[in-house]
Amino acid sequence: MGSIRPRRLRSSDAMRRLVRETELSVNDLVYPLFAVHGSGVREEIPSMPGCFQMSVDELVKEAAEVQGLGIPAILLFGLPATKDEIGSEAYAPEGIVQQAVKAIKAAVKDLLVITDVCLCEYTSHGHCGIVREGQVVNDQTLRLLAQTAVSHAQAGADIVAPSDMMDGRVAAIRQALDDAGFTNTPIMSYAAKYASSFYGPFREAAESAPQFGDRRTYQMDPANAREAIKEVMLDIEEGADIVMVKPALAYMDIIRQVKDSTDVPVAAYNVSGEYSMVKAAVGNGWIDERSVVMEILTSIKRAGADIILTYHAKDAAKWLMEPTQPVSSSEGPAP
């Protein structure tokens, strides 16, 4: 009997590429963007180096660059001019996201525009739904979420992505879209969205931190795994076309369980805190950005994600376009 030597299949870069099990592609990536009112605005987010709040004119330029890199889709978040208790600009016909969608779809053909459907950026209290007597009320919120989704579709959004974690919101949005004639608009549901500490930089970027309490009564407990499958299955039953796990890195087990339990595309959100930790370590010279980012994104795909939403998307797309650089030594990189 011949000896078993796994190193035979690691002997060179060409050999490793030949037998590689997981391949990351630019087609897997979605790039999140933040829309603000004004003109000529491109303001870097302090806790997210390389990411910006951008006015619509700047977003159009950014979208064209993203498409030029081969990235198939962007995800839009909006920062309103004013906030109120019911998040009125979220579903206003000329809200910031609606304006951005119209402009991008008119100028950048064949780029998919996904819109985040939630109220937290638009409400004065920072919660994802209507608040009554200090509590986020579920069923009264559904109507506004559905109205928001329809307004995005009317503006030209290709996919709507509810992130609020209200019970029944996928069914409410599906019904509203169908009633408005948008039967072909898919829903990408934030199906297993955890109450995570990794969202901190995003809340600065979207100016959406809650003004009281937290979001643990509607976002999932990080300790729970079986509950994620229940949430995912409910959303699929209600009409979700794509389901998402958020965050990604601390929830690789959830991504794999969702992938093994469903037959719809699975998305994973490589969230702001995950991005900012990498950027901070790079800024201190502790890690190599390219190798770490590509390892992270490959691991998310290996866990089962078909779609990866990530602030690293533009850099990753550029690196994926570059020719493979073989390692000169047969021993490979140092441990």
Order of helices and strands: HEEEHEHEEEHEHEHHEHEHHEH
CATH architecture: Alpha-Beta Barrel
Q: How large a portion of the residues is in β-strands, by DSSP E?
A: 15-25%
CATH superfamily: Aldolase class I
Query: Structural class of the secondary elements?
Result: alpha/beta
Number of strands: 12
Summarize the structure.
The protein is α/β, with parallel strands linked by helices. Helices cover 37% and strands 16% of the residues. It is built from eleven helices and twelve strands.
Structure write-up:
This protein is of the alpha/beta class. It has one domain (20-321): Aldolase class I (TIM Barrel), CATH 3.20.20. Helix content is 37%, strand content 16%. The chain has helices at residues 13-18, 56-68, 96-107, 138-155, 169-179, 200-205, 226-238, 252-261, 272-283, 289-303, 313-321, and strands at 29-36, 42-44, 52-55, 73-78, 112-117, 131-132, 135-136, 159-162, 188-193, 242-246, 266-270, 307-310. α3 runs parallel beside α4 (138-155), α4 (138-155) crosses α5 and α5 runs parallel beside α7. The radius of gyration is 21 Å and the shape is globular.
